[in-house]
């Protein structure tokens, strides 16, 4: 099933067992921003989680954004606890490759991060992004508050309207709460800020070229 042309999410019975503790440690600080990866984070900062394909290029998009305090990559939305990269790539954990963004809402709004998210990938592709095929590459937003959930859903609806007008299909992005059923598991050290360490490394990020009308959602109802 998992080697077929069409990826399929595993059931809990099919998913890998995982482990109670991670097999690896995560670096203390961001190689570009210099701030803590895992916290504690300064008071007043907020957390956002975005899955938009291969997390190497996606993370760079966010750390280059003014108002972002730190970023780190990991695995979220799956079944297997404390997975490793090879397990996630097998399709047998159910996770997405995700970027955790810690930001200062006084300097950059969550809506601005949503706009960057939508415009940095094609959210209509299901279990793939470009040449990257697999359940781990699906598009998702994991929200940390009712306000984030409301804004994420509104932005999805607004972007769907302009994508439809440009000839694209339905958005397949999941908007789900980042609760205890969808914990964030940090990825291995070599994945953190990968494109800073490997400037010529692979970056599969590419958008539709269609601008996301953030701010239009409320006006259009």
UniProtKB/TrEMBL annotation:
EC id: 1.8.4.11
Catalytic center residues: 54
Catalytic function, reaction form: [thioredoxin]-disulfide + L-methionine + H2O = L-methionine (S)-S-oxide + [thioredoxin]-dithiol; L-methionyl-[protein] + [thioredoxin]-disulfide + H2O = L-methionyl-(S)-S-oxide-[protein] + [thioredoxin]-dithiol
Broad class of enzyme this protein falls into: oxidoreductase
Region: Disordered, residue numbers: 1-23
Domain Peptide methionine sulphoxide reductase MsrA residues, every copy: 49-203
GO MF terms, alphabetically ordered: peptide-methionine (S)-S-oxide reductase activity
Keyword Lipid biosynthesis tagged: no
Keywords from the named record: Oxidoreductase
Family: Belongs to the MsrA Met sulfoxide reductase family.
Entry-linked PANTHER family: MITOCHONDRIAL PEPTIDE METHIONINE SULFOXIDE REDUCTASE
Function summary: Has an important function as a repair enzyme for proteins that have been inactivated by oxidation. Catalyzes the reversible oxidation-reduction of methionine sulfoxide in proteins to methionine.
Name this protein carries in UniProt: Peptide methionine sulfoxide reductase MsrA
Annotated organism of origin: Streptomyces wedmorensis
Gene: msrA
């Amino acid at each position: 099933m998992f080697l077929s042309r069409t990826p399929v999410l595993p059931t809990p019975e099919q998913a890998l067992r995982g482990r109670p503790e991670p097999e690896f440690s995560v670096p203390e600080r961001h190689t570009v921003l210099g701030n803590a990866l895992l916290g504690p984070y300064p008071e007043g900062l907020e957390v956002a989680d975005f899955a938009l394909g291969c997390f190497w290029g996606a993370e760079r998009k966010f750390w280059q954004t003014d108002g972002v305090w730190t970023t780190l990559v990991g695995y979220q939305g799956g079944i297997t606890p404390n997975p490793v990269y090879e397990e996630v790539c097998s399709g047998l954990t159910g996770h997405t490759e995700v970027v955790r963004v810690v930001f200062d809402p006084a300097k950059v709004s969550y809506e601005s991060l949503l706009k960057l998210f939508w415009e940095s990938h094609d959210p209509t592709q299901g279990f793939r992004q470009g040449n990257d095929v697999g359940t781990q590459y699906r598009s998702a937003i994991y929200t940390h508050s009712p306000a984030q959930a409301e804004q994420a859903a509104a932005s999805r609806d607004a972007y769907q309207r302009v994508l439809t007008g440009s000839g694209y299909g339905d958005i397949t992005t999941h908007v789900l709460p980042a609760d205890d059923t969808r914990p964030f598991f940090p990825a291995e050290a070599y994945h953190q800020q990968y494109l800073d360490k490997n400037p010529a490394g692979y970056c599969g990020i590419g958008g539709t070229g269609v601008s996301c009308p953030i701010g239009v959602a409320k006006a259009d109802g």
